[in-house]
Amino acid sequence: MVTIDLLLDSKDQYVYLFSDCFLVKGHTRTMICDVSRKKMYFINNPYFEVLEELKCTKIGDYIHNLATEDDLEIFCQFLNYLFENQLATIVTEIDSFPPIEIQWDSPHHVSNAIIDIRDKDHPFGKIFMQLDHLLCPHVQIRSYKILTYEYLHNILCSYSKISNFRHIQILTKYSSQLNLSMFMEMTKKFPMISIVFHSVPEKDIVKLQGYASSLTFINEPIDSCKQCGIINKESLGLGGLSNFMENMLYNGCLNRKISIDENGNIKNCPSMTKIYGNIADEKLEEVIEFTAFKNLWTIKKDEIKKCQDCEYRYVCTDCRAYLEDETDIYSKPLKCDYDPYQGTWK
Q1: Which residues does residue 30 pair with via DSSP β-bridges, in sequence order?
Q2: CA-based angle 104:238:26, to the nearest 5?
Q3: Looking at the domain assignment, is residue 168 inside a domain?
Q4: How deeply is 95 buried, as exposed, middle or buried, from its count of CB atoms within 10 A (0-12, 13-18, 19+)?
Q5: pLDDT, average across residues 139-156
Q6: Residue 338 in domain
Q7: What CATH number did the domain enclosing 13 receive?
Q8: Using the 8-state DSSP alphabet, how is residue 122 labeled?
Q9: Is residue 151 scored above 70 in pLDDT?
Q10: Is the domain of 156 the same as that of 252?
């Protein structure tokens, strides 16, 4: 526990906020993002300035400038909060702990892809081969209809010669007529896949939850791509250092993403209106070279209205498909439930 006597004994030392704990100042408060433990902490904005000052100020020099004993006591309480949550410590040489360089890169030309299914059959063999050439590790297949075991098995067989996919998430409509044990066996045959059944009746949710760890069941009906772009408490998450850096420097949702909508049109996201050709005629490798396609990858939260004042901005994936002002690509996400100026959720 930090006491005033301990601070006086440490007057020639420094308070060191661990380098993997990043400060994100918002309009109403500051977030401390512990990217190693993937935890978020909140402090009042004046403490942002305190921590910035402590980066180059000895403890003795800092407490010498405090006006009253009460200020010193409050400072002790703040340090105890940091130390108890393992966010900081006291060190002798602050220069021995340089900050983490703000940078991000990836060997993947495309890091994630969304493929929507409704009535049109897509050439999955062709799509998977092209995504493989782009070194794409993550694919989501999102179906607005019921996929039979046979239909889905045929899709996955198109994957059989592809090696770069780390994960394929299949989001498909639920039916009580489906043989779930067969889908469970499918996840064993293709260990890189996970299957999420949506539109599950409330009465079936409880009994299905413990069915199998490889199958997930949700009540929410997913009828179209218009249901994406929602930003709420549940959608936020601190995914680690790489994810945090990417959200700082690029667009958290669209960076290195490519999508094929239910009609086979190639887009940045199925919800976007801009089309870059159809998978029947265009190659994904060529589409990602279009300047207009890549421009959306670099729209950062620090450039987006209201988001730039939000303490959550580097743990939020953002949405450029649904905007408060459709004429302004830097407008606030339409479906965001947070008010950074009041610090409240709807």
Answers
A1: 25, 43
A2: 90
A3: yes
A4: exposed
A5: 95
A6: no
A7: 3.90.930
A8: P
A9: yes
A10: yes
Higher confidence at residue 143 or residue 213? Answer: 143
Q: Is there a contact between 317 and 3 (Cβ–Cβ < 8 Å)?
A: no
Beta strands (DSSP E) in 174-270 are 193-198, 215-217, 257-260, 266-267
The number of C-alpha atoms within 13 Å of 7 and in the hemisphere containing its C-beta is 22
Q: Above pLDDT 70, what percent of the chain?
A: 98
Compute the distance between CA of residue 94 and CA of residue 19 in angstroms, rounded to an integer: 11
Number of neighbouring beta carbons within 10 Å of residue 298 = 12
Q: With contact defined as beta carbons under 8 Å apart, do 251 and 318 qualify?
A: yes
| Statement to judge: residues 117 and 157 lie in one domain | yes
Global pTM reads 0.91
pLDDT band of 19, cuts 50, 70, 90: very high
Paired tokens of 57? 């100020």
One domain, residues 191 and 281: yes
Domain co-membership, 57 together with 179: no
Range of the domain at 277: 112-297
Closest listed residue to residue 299, CA positions, set 248, 340, 337: 248
CA-to-CA distance for 112 and 89, rounded, in angstroms? 38
Q: How many domains does the chain have?
A: 2
**Calpha distance 38→237 (Å, rounded):** 8
Closest C-alpha among 273, 262, 261 to residue 322 = 273
Tokens standing for residue 228: 């994406």
What is the tens place of the pLDDT at every residue in 78-116?
999 999 999 999 999 999 999 999 999 999 999 999 999
Average pLDDT, the chain: 94
3: phi then psi, degrees, rounded to nearest 5:
-120, 170
Q: How confident is the model at residue 212 (pLDDT cuts 50, 70, 90)?
A: low
In 169-233, alpha helices (H): 180-189, 202-209
**Do 74 and 116 belong together in one domain?**
no
Alpha-carbon distance of 338 to 346, in angstroms, equals 6
